[in-house]
Each structure stands twice: as structure tokens, then as C-alpha cells.
Design a protein that fits this description.
By secondary structure, this protein is mostly beta strands. The chain folds into two domains: 32 residues, no CATH class; 123 residues. It contains one helix and 13 strands, in the order ββαβββββββββββ. Strands 5, 6, 10, 11 and 12 form a five-stranded antiparallel beta sheet that branches.
Length: 174
């Protein structure tokens, strides 16, 4: 029997390359060969993530009529159309894409505010604190997801903020 470490390495694996495997369902000599393409097809057909995913950065999304810049990092869900609803509220629409009780949204605001709130909430005193806006995400129905953004104002109170910049991942589990 050959010693596998004595063979020269392959510098770039290609689909037509062949690998040695052991077929444990066979008696006697279970050694067999399989192409990288065939192994990839098998792995792809049996080892899925269990969900489809939309991953993007949404930037420069402002009030009514504003068109966001959407940089997709990965998308196996479909093309979501984003629009402004009202102050601090946006929606993404893709007909029939969001399965009830199987859709989850992860979102992180990239907007940081430095309201002029001093000690004990004194207005007009510049603080060094920066606060990220808060995002609330919901699945409204099988075609619509919502994002609502809140920020801290100069009075220390929370209110809806009208410029959205965020990273978002939407997963739809199979």
C-alpha cells in the first residue's frame, strides 16, 4: 500500500482532479477514487446552510423619494426593493420571500450621534459620548420586512431618526 504523503502536492485543485476515498459499505478493498467535481456536487446537495440569506449594507437612505445605496455582500433570497415609509421607517418588499415564523433579521446601525447632553441631562453641554441609533426590525408579512430607527436627541429623549445607514442580514430558514 502506498504512503499518501510521498506523492507530490497539487498546487491548485481543479474539478477534474481525483481523490482517494474509502467506501465503507464495501468488503475487502474499499479504496475508490472520486473526482473533485463529483465530491463538490455531493457536498452541495447534502450540506446546505438550512436557510437562504440576504446580506447588505444600506446607506444614504433618507426621507420620501430617497433612493438608498445598497451594497449586497450575498443574496440567495432575491432582489428586495427598499422604500421610505415615514419618518424613521423603511420597508423592504419581495413578494412571497419571507416565510412566516422562519424569517429572522439581524441589523446593526452605522449611524452614531453625539447629542449635546451634559451631566444630569443638561441640554447644550457637549459630551464625548456617541450613541448608535437603535433599529427595530419586523417581518410584516410574507412579502414585507420593516426597519424602524430611533436615536437620542439633544433633550435625551428617544425619537425616530430619518437617515438610515445599516448592515442587514435577512435569513429565511428552509
Amino acid at each position: 500500500m502506498a504512503n499518501i504523503i510521498t506523492y507530490p502536492p497539487i498546487t491548485a485543485v481543479a474539478g477534474k482532479n481525483v481523490m482517494i476515498v474509502s467506501d465503507t459499505s464495501l468488503e475487502g478493498n474499499p479504496t475508490r477514487s472520486v473526482s473533485v467535481d463529483a465530491l463538490g456536487t455531493y457536498i452541495g446537495s447534502t450540506q446546505t446552510l438550512g436557510y437562504t440569506s440576504y446580506v447588505a449594507r444600506v446607506t444614504d437612505f433618507t426621507a420620501e423619494g430617497g433612493v438608498p445605496t445598497v451594497i449586497e455582500f450575498g443574496n440567495t433570497v432575491g432582489n428586495i426593493v427598499w422604500s421610505w415609509v415615514s419618518t424613521g421607517e423603511w420597508k423592504g418588499v419581495l413578494t412571497g420571500a419571507f416565510t412566516a415564523n422562519k424569517t429572522v433579521i439581524f441589523a446593526q446601525s452605522l449611524v452614531y450621534l453625539n447629542p449635546s447632553i451634559g451631566a444630569n441631562g443638561v441640554n447644550g453641554v457637549t459630551d464625548v459620548n456617541e450613541f448608535p441609533t437603535s433599529l427595530i426590525t419586523t417581518v410584516a408579512d410574507t412579502s414585507t420586512v420593516n426597519i424602524t430607527q430611533y436615536s437620542i436627541g439633544n433633550t435625551g429623549a428617544s425619537g425616530k431618526s430619518n437617515t438610515l445607514t445599516c448592515d442587514i442580514e435577512i435569513r429565511v430558514y428552509l
